[in-house]
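Complex record, three chains
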Amino acid sequence: MPGVTLRGLSKRYGAGAGVAAVDDLSLEVKPRELVALLGPSGCGKTTTLRLVAGFLTPDGGEIFVGDRCLSSATSVVPPERRRVAMIFQSYALWPHLTVAQNVGYGLKFKKGLARVERDRRVSEMLKVVQLDGFETRYPSQLSGGQQQRVAVARALVVEPEILLLDEPLSNLDANLREEMRFEIRRLHERFGITTLYVTHDQAEAMVISDRIAVLDRGRVAQVGSAEEIFQHPRTRFVADFIGRTNLVDAVAASSEVVTRGALRLHVATASLTPGARVAVSIRPHEIAFASSSDGRTGDNVLSGRIRRASYLGDAVDYQVEIEGTDVVLRAAAPAALRLKTGEPVSLVIRASACVPLPE
Amino acid sequence: MKRSRSASSSSSARKPLAPLVLLGVLAAGGASAQDARLPEARREGKVVWHTSLALDSAQRLVARFEQTYGVKVEVHRTGSERILQRVVQAYSAGIKNADVVNTSDTGHYVFLKRKGLLARYTPAGAERFPAAFKDADAMAWGWRAFPLVIPYNTRQVAGGDVPQTWRDLLDPKWKNRLVMSHPGYAGSVVTQIIALEHLFGWDYWAQLAKNRVMLVQSIHDPGRTVLSGERAAGVSGADYGPLYTERRKPGAPIAAAYPRDGVPFIFSPTAIMSFAPHPNAARLFTDFILTREIQQILADSEGIYVAHPDVTYPADRPKLSELKMLVVDPDEIDKRTEEVKKRFVELFGA
Amino acid sequence: MPSTFDRSVPVWIITAVTLVLLMILPLGWLGWVSISSEQGTTLANYVHVFSDPHLQKALWNTIVLAFWVGLASLAVGVPMAWLTGRTDLPGKRVIRALILASFVTPPFLGAFAWVMLAGPNAGLLNKIYRGVTGSDEPLMNIFTMPGLIFVVALYSFPYVYIMIVNTLELIASDLEEAGAILGASRFRVALTITLPLALPAIISGFILAVLQALALFGSPAILALPAGFHTITTQIWSFFQYPPKVEQAAAFSIPLLLATALLLQLQKRLLGRRGYAGVGGKTGARRPIPLGYWRWPALAAVFAVLACTIALPYAILTKAAFAKAWAQPLSWDNVTLANFHFTFFEYSATRDAIINTLELGIVTATVGAIMAALLAYVTNRRLVPGHQALGFLALAPVVIPGVVLAVGLFIAYTKPPLVLYGTLAILFVAYLTKELPVGYAQADTTFKGVHPELEEAGRILGAGRLRVLREITAPLARSGIIATWCFVFIGVIRELSASIILFTPATKVISVVIFDLKEEGQFAAISVLGLFMLAMTFATVLLMQTVLGRDFIGAKD
């Protein structure tokens, strides 16, 4: 099972210099790994996927599967010879073919497969996706979730080297989506195919993938495990995109302290340039409400006042005005802590939770 | 040799009668030439005939020829001016698809002769034609002739209102009640326009235009328009074919007036094209339409005047000698046809 | 790794080249001839054509005709579209079917039928009017400019109707509901919200109707010439009377061509790139506007219009076909089958014309459908560089009025090396060029309905491009391509304005024979052939509806 290497990939649209959908993008997907391409719309994730599929020719850079060069600016192996399978956002099930014919379509191109063997594999795969008995139905007779599973079966049955998924869950309703996330992860662990998974839903990316590549305007902003990205975002964009965060624009007072107005924060690293502008990311759930003597040395302790409290059921979302500055921090706390608007509070934030970001 | 071939080519049931048939044919004159052409004509397969003869009449003639000789006729019936346009236009593009051409515009034949597009051929019995139907160049022979009269609807035109002269049509009481064929389509109208211009000058036509005359195409259309009651009277109508047959039906609301100052008399020649793709069939056909039998049919059923001297006309047809004919010289027609059409369009609008 | 050679590319290139030949060649010759004379290049033809008062009149007549036809088509088409698209008017299915029938009826047949209905003296309606009121004057005289406008508008308004109906579908319902909730009555909403939103489409519909009127030949020939006035199209045709004044015909054609091109450009700009007035917002289920006591007057008005386009003309054609004398009342001794016998068995031109028409119809439709399908596929899937230009070229012939195209083809193909004049081939070229836009529009819609991902899914599973075409695209596009075939077929069998210039006696088609018979005044035979042509048309429409499973009025651009 080979891995996928994207090296300096770029693709432009439009006349002249145009718009760069993918801009010098490099990424390494290890064999058997599931990497999610995550980002807002327009970040280039779908374009990247379609480049890997062979539907687009790159303007620059190369795509390697294992040590085969599949795409470069000068030559592209056509999609039918790349040994790549894809699950489309619209499922792309052929309405004039039955479920069995849909799933078995790719097997026709495998040499040396007898009809009986093809049918057997189709039946097996349908069992795997829990659609056995559906062979003679037509896609129009299936629900959205069932159609999606047929699409999955169709891709997996041909035993591809690389599997591409293009936002396959975005057309399902919320409950089904959650269920299918686990299903896809389960299938990945069973078959172990190197996979690229495009999504704009970060929860989905976090559940499904081994690693996440966050894309911003055609480039990889950060690659890492869900935890790495969440805890240690490396750019403002990543911090803002993944999970909710507070972003404080401050100035470095020393190598490890930033200030804004009366606010002084010890930050996670000690490599700041004094005088430089720094954005600090603080996750809401890392902000604790002080009660008596919480807090250890090096922790930031801030006084403030509750501006608004929003009851969310499992937690309460607080907006806290920090004294002496214009900074408003959002913090989350269990519902039991019943703070009210206008109430003065004390916040405790560990230095390691204040992540400085390059501007 | 040829005779026995042609005898055996007629149906075997007639074999014993063959000599008698031959005798009969010989008696009609010029017969051996006709026999000789039949196999050739059959080989050629068909004759292409362009004619301005009224459609029903033309179709009937065609049927008879096909029955008699077993040679197909591809007939194209349209107005004389159109015929010339199409035949010459096709020829200029290298398409030779006309054998026998018959229009009601003698000027056409002057033109065609000038361009060398007519073949020399003397039909059987031509030496007996009246002088007006003969051709010194042996190319364009008068085949039929007819007067242009004023058809009118008897329900819409009271006895006292029936036009007696051409100038009667200028009366404002005829405004919006007249119909006329277009000289751009019907050749006989070109003759009429020149004929009346000789009598009254262009002023006649200028004045007539003020009566908002409805314009149709075929020379038979005014008769039909008048019959349907759409207009009260026609400025001209060919007095043969539909106009003639309809008038004879009892109770038909249509009649024709022969103006006192004369009726334009239209000769409608027939000729074989020099480039005819089926020359033998063409000659066979030409002889056929000039035989006494066919010409008699034309006279009887269509009311038309023909070339053959032995034809007898129905009692209700005025004798040629009784008609005051307005005849126009073919050369003049040829020279002035453009001018006539142009001025007509200027005066009548379209 | 070397890139694979796509076997399909040459196919695309050949199609593109054919397209260029079909259009560029005749237009090129047209332009060239318009500025040439025996002395070399000159503008004299243009000078003559525009300074001749007679020709100026023809120009003016055409402008007047086109303008009023546009207005009249709007006046009829917009309310009808609104009534069927927004209100609870009953009988919508029947109405749509009748509008469809109006759409496919050849306008010259309608004109001819109206001669029998509204000729000032013999016309049936006028006779009835005179009988009822005792007046001497007719109710209407069809042989006038208003008469011509009336008849042309009758068969142009469906274009406006289709355009507006489609647009109304696209106007998001919540835009209107927002107005309703603020207190506007349903009619007020229609006037102050719907109408302005549909304005680009309305203007565009006006332009479409104007274009129709500019290019028509049959109706003006039937109604204007007897009344003594010309339009540009009839004038161009009359330039071909012997001797043909081809240079003048060419010079007169160019302005017509430019006018249509300009108008189409305007229309495109109005509708934006999508080609229809798409308006933002969300569309939910609409509540139809109740008409209340307006319902019956509205229905009466709608059926009055449809009576004029369908009921009355078809009735009079049927009567004339079965009657010995069409102007006489229909009594038992006026009924006869002789007209049918004459038309089909005695009149020699009929059989050949029917064969020619069917031959040309089938061949053109087949070739046209294939070309349209290829072109639409190439442009939809962006398979060759410059595919936008291809799409533009495929639709470009709509700019050329039939008469003008015929003049260009006449000039191009009556001289060596390729002399097509006198054969069916030149008619084939004319028909193909003229009907390709319609075919392309339908094929385009078809392929837009086949999601590219369906093909990509096949390719990524191992099927090559041509295999995907065969096994996936073709079955899904089949009914749409059959509809394309039907569209082109219907267009071909009723074509007159190009045929009337390009035919020769041996290559007549039904429409030309009908026109010939009209010049003969053979009303009965015309009616018989007219009914025959309508029968062929409706048979094809029925085929198309069966294949598509729905009426195609919504699908037409």
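Note: The longest strand of chain A covers residues 300-311.
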